[in-house]
Amino acid sequence: MPQPPKRATRRRCVPGFVYQNRLDSTMAIQKLAQGGRPSKGPRHTFVVKPDLARAEKLRAIMEILGTNAVDYLTPLVAAHIDSIDLEELRNQETLPIPKAS
């Protein structure tokens, strides 16, 4: 039975592919080249799905302001989250439910 060909140990260069970041077994992403803007620290991605009318309006806002969704929405969401008192939210009184007799 013929053996499968061995994998090449040398990295093949793909035209147009940027090798600034690479995946390896010890780190999710290892940055090979330094530069660009400084990191803002660890982040978590949330996906939201506004209705089409709001999505179109958001796209128009971003185009007029010359920005992108992340830069436009992150401070708005952060301000809203910061305005919420978790203790007050956790200790809300529940509406009384009449017992069925």
Reading the helices and strands in chain order gives EEHHH
The major pleated sheet works out as:
2 strands, antiparallel
Count up the helices: 3
Distance N to C terminus = 79 Å
Number of E-state strands? 2
- Sheet-strand content, in percent, reads under 5%
Average pLDDT score: 78
Q: Give the % helix.
A: 25-40%
* Coarse morphology: extended
Unreliable residue stretches: none
Overview features:
single chain; 101 residues; mainly alpha; two-stranded antiparallel ribbon; 2 strands
Brief overview:
This protein has 101 residues and is mainly alpha-helical.
Explain this structure.
This protein has helices at residues 52-65, 69-82, 86-90; strands spanning 21-22, 30-31. The chain starts with 20 loop residues before the first strand and ends in an 11-residue tail after the last helix. With 101 residues, the chain is mainly α. A hairpin with a 7-residue loop joins strand 1 and strand 2. It has a two-stranded antiparallel sheet with strand order 1-2.
Layout of secondary structure:
Blueprint (H helix, E strand, L loop, with lengths): L20 E2 L7 E2 L20 H14 L3 H14 L3 H5 L11
Antiparallel strand pairs: 1-2
